[in-house]
Every structure is written in C-alpha cells, then in structure tokens.
C-alpha cells in the first residue's frame, strides 16, 4: 500500500505547474476559505491545444460548471471531468488578473504580475508565455451575472475552509494553477491554495 | 469628394478578412435580419495579440457590450470602440461554431467547417490557424443567461433588416468575420452578412 499523496501548498500570490497523465486526479483545496485558484491546462502532446472556456460553456449550456461536468479543449476534446465539488461555484468568463488589470481597475502604479504572470512563469518550462494564457477556470471565484442587464460582479468566494474540487485528467496535461492575487476575488485576504495529485494506478 | 465606400457581402456560411488601420471604421450589417456574424481580430504588428472576450468583459463589468464600450486585446489594449449599435445585443462568451460542435450538438455525421473553420480560412494569409481562433465577438448573437442557475440559451437574434454595428479600429488590425453557419444562432435562416469599411482621412 502506498502512502497517501502529499498535500502541496501554493504560497499567496504565486503559481505552480504539474504534469498529469490520463486518469490522474488533481484535488484543489481552499485551506482557509474565500480564496480563488485560477487554473489552466495544455495538452502535453501539443501545447497548441488548451483549456477553452467558450467550448466548455457551449457544450454544458451553462456558465457555472460543477460535479459531473466536463472541461473541454479548443479542439473539443475533454481535458477534465469534475468528479467532486464541495463548493459548487466557480467562474469561467474572466481572464486571470494581470499587471495591466491591476493598473486599470485597482489603480496600482506598477501592477503586480497577477495570476496571468504567475501562470506564465509556472508554464515557462513548457515554452508557454503570457500571450497564450487563456480565460482560466477560476476555481472558487464567485462571479454573478444579472440576467436582465448582463452586468457582472465579483463577490467573495462561497468556499469555506477545506472546500475542494476534484478533477480527473482525460489526456496527458500540463496544468498550472495559482493562489489568486486579486483582492476583489478573495475578499482581500490573499491566502494560499493547497493541492494534491492522486496518480492513476499504473497499467 | 470621394465616392461612398462600397458595401460588400459575405455569402451565407462563409467568412472574410480585411485589414484596418487606426481610425478606420468597420460597419457590420445584418441585411435581412436574424443573422449572426462572428468577428475576431489580431494586431497586424504582432498577431500574438488578439481580441480577448475575458479582458473586455472584465473591464466593462458586463457580458453584453454596446455603443461606447471598448473591445480589448489579451494585452489589455483597446482594439475597437463601438461607435454605433442599432441592435444592442451581441454575445462574447461562446466559441465560434465548429466542425466538432456540429457533430456534437447538432448530430451532423461530418460537421461543416462552421465559423471557426471559415475564420481560419479567411486568416490563413496572415498565418493564423484554427487553434488560434478565440472566443469571437458574436455580433447580433442573442445568448441569454439565467442569473440564478447560470444556464445559457441561444435564441434568435434581435436584429432586424438593416441593423448594424459600427466599430472604430484603435490599432492596425486584421479582422475576420463570418455569416454564421449555426442554425440555432440565426433561427435556421443561413443568410448573408454585409459590411463596409470607411477609411480614416489620411494624414
């Protein structure tokens, strides 16, 4: 019997990347509550294939994905299945926070790298730069939409301490994720994010 | 005095690309009503800079953009200003219809190229392939969102014959647009789309 896989911690305002094989499960955990993790993924066989919000929303016919839903690539192939979800509310419409976003929306003179910069830094070993960071699957991010006006609002996450989402990889992937840097997304708490990779039994 | 610029027609289920310089205005017209045009754009100075739905929605804090709103690139620079809009309802959340989407959602055995394929074909002279077609600005596409459940629905466009949107280019662009191939988006009418380019007065 192998030891339980270790929980790893993503420090506040930073990012990490991991490789997954088909069948591996990634558990993303909000250890303290009210924190967001922007997640994106690329096919390891060809990094021109990436996680696509627009495809996933189209195929699910809903903005908010949860247990049982699939996350698709730009090539319409399943990248992940959501196996468990104790929070139930995530965003898939907004780009990761970025240097320019902090300057524009938060009035920072010299914006911080944000999730976009942290995802790109984590993905640099795979040759993936900032221009190629798409709309992420923003785990635990609570974005509301007014169905009459289309107005969107970023509210504090609904996640409490220990809430998690479990994703099964449906192809060989490189996955990057963050502990979010945007105050509005995490109720100005800038906490860490935990994750655990559970490897599929080999052959 | 120069002659009025000609109106050009995009045949049903096809696409076109045009180059715009800063200040040029592109008028996209629904000649018969209830037709959709998926539009995307890339910076001519560096085609790694592209029209970003996620940035545009984030900066506008609303899903549905109209007169006075800006459309942003992935690098957070303004690509277009919407100068006029006689319809008022467009989508910016769904990927263009594609071969795989027709097979998956419409049950076609061999899916048609769709707006994705037609945009890629139109952009081929600029070296832009299908993997790089992002979520488009889906002009006249009427997608509703249930603010309680997040459920999205594609309804017939609200555009009538002659409705149009006028976009001013804010940087040198290559713009591609379609007459949409998806029955659900155009109420199963598969009509053409017209457009007109009004060049900025030269220096």
Question: N-to-C SSE series of chain A?
Answer: EEEEHEEHHEEEEEE
Global structural class of chain A: mainly beta
Oligomer: homodimer
The number of distinct helices of chain A, counting runs of at least 4 residues, comes to 3
Report the β-strand fraction of chain A as a percent range: 25-35%
Major beta sheet summary of chain A: 6 strands, antiparallel
Largest interface: A-B, 39 and 39 residues
Weakly predicted, low-confidence segments of chain A: none
The number of strands of chain A is 12
Mean pLDDT across residues of chain A: 95
Spatial order of strands in the largest sheet of chain A: 1-12-3-10-6-5
Helix fraction of chain A? Answer: 10-25%
How many separate domains of chain A? Answer: 1
How would you sum up the global shape of chain A? globular
Question: CA-to-CA gap between the ends of chain A?
Answer: 16 Å
Instruction: Please state the CA-atom Rg of chain A, rounded to the nearest Å.
Output: 16 Å
């Amino acid at each position: 019997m192998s030891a339980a896989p270790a929980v790893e911690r993503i420090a506040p305002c930073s990012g990490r990347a991991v490789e997954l094989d088909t069948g591996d499960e990634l558990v993303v955990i909000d250890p303290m509550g009210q924190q967001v993790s922007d997640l994106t993924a690329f096919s390891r066989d060809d990094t021109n294939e990436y996680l696509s919000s627009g495809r996933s929303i189209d195929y699910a016919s809903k903005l908010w994905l949860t247990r049982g839903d699939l996350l698709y690539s730009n090539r319409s192939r399943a990248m992940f299945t959501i196996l468990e979800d104790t929070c139930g509310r995530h965003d898939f419409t907004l780009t990761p926070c970025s240097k320019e976003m902090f300057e524009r929306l938060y009035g920072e003179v010299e914006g911080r790298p944000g999730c976009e910069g942290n995802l790109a830094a984590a993905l640099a070993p795979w040759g993936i730069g900032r221009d190629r960071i798409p709309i992420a699957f923003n785990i635990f991010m609570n974005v509301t939409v007014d169905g009459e006006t289309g107005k969107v609002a970023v509210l504090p996450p609904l996640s409490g301490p220990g809430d998690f989402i479990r994703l099964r990889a449906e192809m060989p992937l490189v996955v990057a994720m963050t502990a979010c840097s945007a105050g509005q997304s995490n109720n100005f708490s800038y906490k860490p994010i935990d994750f655990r990779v559970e490897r599929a039994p080999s052959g």
